[in-house]
Each structure stands twice: as structure tokens, then as C-alpha cells.
Automatic annotation (TrEMBL):
Top-rank lineage group of the source organism: Bacteria
NCBIfam families: PRK09190.1 (NF006622)
InterPro entries recorded: YlxR, YlxR_dom
Protein name: RNA-binding protein
Residue ranges of domain YlxR in the record: 22-87
Amino acid sequence: MGGAAPLAEKDPGEEEVHGPFRRCIVTRAVLPKEAMIRFVVGPDGMVVPDLAARLPGRGMWLSARAAVLEQACSRRLFARAAKAEVRVPEGLGAQIVAGLERRIADTLGLARRAGRAVCGFVKARDWVMTGRAGLVVTARDGAAEGRRKLLAGASVPVVAPLDAVALGAVFGREQVVHVALAPGRLAQAVAVESARLAGMRGETASEGAVSDATDDRDGAG
């Protein structure tokens, strides 16, 4: 019958874990699916990251952390979980990071088109000061001082998943440093994906790294 894993089998650990939680095949920790990355084995035996958790096949879940992925690869835990010989592509971590960046950019684009996001220091600050901001997105290469001025003590979650050029591409500008999103599903999706991305980059804070670069590139907004 061959050694291929049966596609109809449940995800590893689903017999013990139900609902919106899964067990990491490396740490064995039970976590919300939103804090994890699902993988499947393709028809060619290659391990494929399923960032949307929708692909058919036997699912294998990892905590969204670079060190956990490294352990899964070095200890051949994908093969053990799949109960079959599998191949892990080179640069799998970089592939996941790029995929999460695309998902964040796509979600920000949806928010922009729906009128649920504004860019530029002035517009973003206005949303923050008037309570219309449910999430602030700042460029990874933006200055910490600019973020402090934008928030001015306001209690609004902040993430920094993309650099200024990538944020600019979303809003049709050369560069964007400050973005404010209205509360709701899209802001929550950006926050969740930013946390996963930070983990896969090996960062400890969900907002990622903020450098001391200048912060006036998106102008007055």
C-alpha cells in the first residue's frame, strides 16, 4: 500500500484537542490556532506551509516561532507527524515570512479600500486622538520617537510588521511610516498575522523591531 500518509486522518493531537486550539508537534503546547502555523504534505512529498489553514491533507501544527521550526526540521518531526517520508524545502522559514508579509499587505489593502485605514502622521494621529484607531501600524524602519509622538500616551496596540517601502506600496506612495486602522475584523487580522510574523522572524515583541531611522517620510498625510 506504500508509505503515504492517509489524507483523511485527523491532525496530530486532534483526538485530545478540539475547537480553536491545536498541539504543537515540537513543544507539545496547546495553543490557539491563530498563534500557530499549519503545514501539510503535498502530493510530491514536500512540506508546505498552510498559512490560511485551509489546504486539504493531514495537518501538522507548529508554534509560530523560528526556533520551533528549526527544531521540527532538524529532528525530522514533520516525517514523524506525517507518518511518512517527507521533504522539507530549503528556505522554509523565509518562505513563511514572505507569505505572512503578503497576507498583512493584502489585509491592509482591504482596509484601505474599505475606508478602514489611513496613512500619514497627521491622519493617523487624528484617528488615535479621536478614538477611531483600533490598531496602529508603523514601519519597521521607522523611528521609535515618531511612534511615541503619534501615540502621545494613547492606549492603542502597535505593530511594525513591514518596512516603509512595503507600507507605501499598499497606499500608493513611495514610503509610508504611520498607519491607523479602525477597530474590527481587519485590524484584528493584521494584529494576529503581525504576531505570527514576529515569531517567525525570531523577535520577542509582537510589534517587531523599530529602529532609530527618521520618521518623517510619509509627510503630513
